[in-house]
Amino acid sequence: MQLTRINKYLSEAGYCSRREADKLIDQGRVTVNGEVPEMGTKVAPGDIVRVNGKTVANLNEKPVYIAFNKPVGIVCTTDSGVEKDNIIDYINYPKRIFPIGRLDKASEGLIFLTNDGDIVNKILRASNNHEKEYVVTVNKPISSTFIDRMGMGISILDTVTKKCEVERLGNYDFRIVLTQGLNRQIRRMCEALDYEVTSLKRVRIMNVLLDIPVGEWRDITEEELSTINEMVTNSIKTYKAPEPKKRNPKYDEEKAEKFNSKDSKPKETPTFSGKSKSRRNKS
């Protein structure tokens, strides 16, 4: 009889990541056959697992991998009871998915969502040094000293940030590539140098570029996912990408051309950076 740790079961069922599952278990919100399990409990085929009283079934659904351009004001949480402006309700995807990592409420840009709990740990694992690229605007002119110090590392949160690539884009704008994910890292780094972030956009995660308007999502392609697997060779590979599905019904080539022609900014950043109204996928 094959036994599975409860956090892995919830992850493989597409309910949440293992880390989030541990929190649910610790909060007493998970039951196995009507009883609250201890951390590390294993479940067997036929066991009934519930979260908040609702049964969670591992139906071995096809994995989903989504790239989403998060608008400012949307919170990266799966708990609609805690935050009404949460990312899950905003996207309204027909299957249960959850975000990989976070992006501040005041920030915008690229974030992944999936129902594959295993890929979360692989991408977020600090030792893998996965790159995340941002374009940032601050409240006063940028000096060469600011760029140098940001790149060399800043003392925040009782540590010194890792050395990183920083490039000035304009008087108030710069590009930065991080390989770690401290809480509000870029904002705290700027604050330490007496600068205030007025705009922050994530334009790349690993090999995936931001190429869709604000508020839209698309499926991560098989080629992109294959490269992600190569980047996490020290971890177990995630599933093969599913067959391509229709993009967000509200996003098509005609709209993309219209969007680019009317609202795109000068090619100062490696991303689709036009202004558009946030549009939800209601399919």
UniProtKB/TrEMBL annotation:
Gene3D superfamilies: Alpha-L RNA-binding motif, Pseudouridine synthase I, catalytic domain, N-terminal subdomain, RNA-binding S4 domain. It catalyses: uridine(2604) in 23S rRNA = pseudouridine(2604) in 23S rRNA; uridine(35) in tRNA(Tyr) = pseudouridine(35) in tRNA(Tyr). InterPro entries: PsdUridine_s_RsuA/RluB/E/F_cat, PsdUridine_synth_cat_dom_sf, PsdUridine_synth_RsuA/RluA, PsdUridine_synth_RsuA/RluB/E/F, PsdUridine_synth_RsuA/RluB_CS, RsuA_PseudoU_synthase, S4_RNA-bd, S4_RNA-bd_sf. Residues 238-283 are annotated as: Disordered. One of its GO terms (biological process) is enzyme-directed rRNA pseudouridine synthesis. SMART domains: S4. Residues 240-268 have a biased composition (Basic and acidic residues). GO terms for molecular function: 23S rRNA pseudouridine(2604) synthase activity; RNA binding. Residues 4-61 form the RNA-binding S4 domain. Keywords: Isomerase, RNA-binding. CDD domains: PseudoU_synth_RluF, S4. Its EC number is 5.4.99.-. Belongs to the pseudouridine synthase RsuA family. This is Pseudouridine synthase.
